[in-house]
Design a protein that fits this description.
With 133 residues, this protein is α+β, with helices and mostly antiparallel strands. Helix content is 22%, strand content 37%. The longest helix has 16 residues, at 7-22.
Amino acid sequence: MDWIFQPTWFAELVADLTARLLDRRQAPRRMIANLAANYLDGTAVGSHVVKDISTKGAFIFADFQWPPGTIMTLTLELKCPDPPPPASVVLWTKVMRCTEDGLGVQFVFLSNGEKLSFADFWKGIPAFGAGTN
């Protein structure tokens, strides 16, 4: 019964529950080597590294923050010479969250054609690690 009075188990329980509540991912993420997200901000094309991606969204490393709710068009492309990468894919995205490291975006498919185009791109990219981190 002494364990009830030890604060460590309660702190661990609260930390675990908080992490589960804050993680609102709708699909498992996977890491992909050399995946870039390109966008046009009206003045120049910006290219940033994609940390991880799922069928619903991605996290993109960036040194800027766009407000949550911002809609933007991204071109995802694999930057590797061997084997030849699949064609790039253009997607509408919605900024869902911003951190010091970058931004989390949700993919917005306006048609079945866009969804199928992304599915083809998804099948063609080699993952170097799988997981939900």
